[in-house]
Structures are given as structure tokens and as C-alpha cells.
Amino acid sequence: MRTTLTLDPDVAARLEREMKRSGTGLKVVVNQALRAGLGMADKPVHPPEFRVEPHAFGFQPGTDLDRLNQLVDELGAEEAARKLSR
């Protein structure tokens, strides 16, 4: 749920201190504080299910997918050389 919250200055300052201490973001700190305050601290948090959906990109056999950045660099260099030779 997304909502707008107006915090009292002392609460905002405490949240900022906790964010710096823990190295986490506002969302995490606020959720942890609310869980503790609502008596839910002992209940496990279930993150949304992460699902990977495969996609057929149509690469030809023999294409090394771990070196696509190198291929992009080579194609960019060829294009630059072609433009310079005009």
C-alpha cells in the first residue's frame, strides 16, 4: 500500500538516525518500527514471489551471451570507422 504520512519532527529525526545506523532505507525502517509497535515483530515477512519468465531472444547458436557488451563495442567501433571514412 502506498500512502502519504506526516511525521512529527522528533519521529522523523529518530527515523533518520535509525536509517543511518542500520544503513537501510526509510521504507524498511518504518515497516520494522510499525511491526514492532503493532506487536508483529515476531511474525515472518513474506516478500512477494519472484518469478523468472524465460524469453527466446533468437540468438544464433554459437553467440556468447556473456560477451554481448564486447559485441556492442565492436559494432560501435565499426560504425564510427565507417562514418570517419566518408
Provide an overview of this structure.
The chain is mainly α and 86 residues long. The chain has a domain at 1-45. It contains three helices and no strands. The radius of gyration is 25 Å and the shape is elongated. It starts with 8 loop residues before the first helix and ends with a helix.
Features:
single chain; mainly alpha; elongated; 86 residues; 3 helices
Instruction: Report the structural category.
Output: mainly alpha
Distance between the termini: 57 Å
Cα Rg: 25 Å
Count of discrete alpha- or pi-helical segments spanning 4 or more residues: 3
> How many DSSP-defined strands?
0
Helix content: 40-55%
Ranges where pLDDT stays below 50 over 5 or more residues in a row are: none
* Biggest sheet descriptor: none
**String of helices and strands:** HHH
Overall mean pLDDT stands at: 89
Shape field = elongated
Question: Could you tell me the strand content as a percent range?
Answer: under 5%
